Amino acid sequence: MSTNLKRKASIDEEEESKPLKRLASEQQSDQEDSDDGLQEIVDVDFDFYNPDEIDFQAIKKLLTQLFSSDSELINLGDFADIIIEENHVGTTVKVDDQKSDPYAILSIVNLTQQKLCTYLSNKCPKKNETLHKAVKDILSLESEDKQVGWVVSERFINMPVEIMAPMYNMLQVEVNKAVQQKEPYKFEWYLFISKTYKEVASTVDEEEEQETSQKQKEKSTATAETFYFQSEDEIIAKYAELQFDFKFTNSEKEQSTDSRRAFSDFGIAPGRKLLLVHRSKFDDLVQEIIKTCSSTAAV
Question: Quick one: DSSP state of residue 211?
Fold first, then answer.
């Protein structure tokens, strides 16, 4: 196995020597504003490591966060094992020390598991025949020279987007190195699964206005603008040649969870979007993510 400790990506060594900064919670900031007109800033050092065996449960938890109620349909433990075994490609982010749980993961997995591909292929809407055929062909994995890489990008919701610049820089370097060493990281397509949401009427409003029909609600949700929980996914969507929104198979179970009810209370309808980026656009995509995320860093 390769060494666990990583250097931060060398995009700009001088800038990287500074710790990334996060604003304190809005409530705390408001209190500070009322006291002395200043907004408190908390300095946090983020350490970058290769995925390690000790991270298995935490990585599996992050993947469960992505698939929610459908996690039981996919053996996420297998993917956590692959990420750890192939740890020369991929990065975790920790705060305390190497033995602590990662707060974020960025890696790439060569999709050879038909179960996940079948799951995703079945989510593609059949009404769009061209899209459905293209996605089905790609995820069939029948062509050995057109491999698919799943870019696994998950983090806790309060993690700053600035960490993605060095993480994507390291991913690009590591993938290129693996290709040079004849490892199976030369992908025709890069697959992303994005957490999205749309703004809808809150359940609180619905209790006050019960006249809206179910069909009107569904139409409103379908035509509403899509937002991304991870802001860099908006860049990925711009480069994606194929993409579609999908719902969970176990949607009823997902709707009964406390987190889903909380979203509904605030008028947010969470969802997922599959994005496929061709290899010819991947380097440009990475460079734009690095540039955009770096430019948002606090100084």
Answer: T
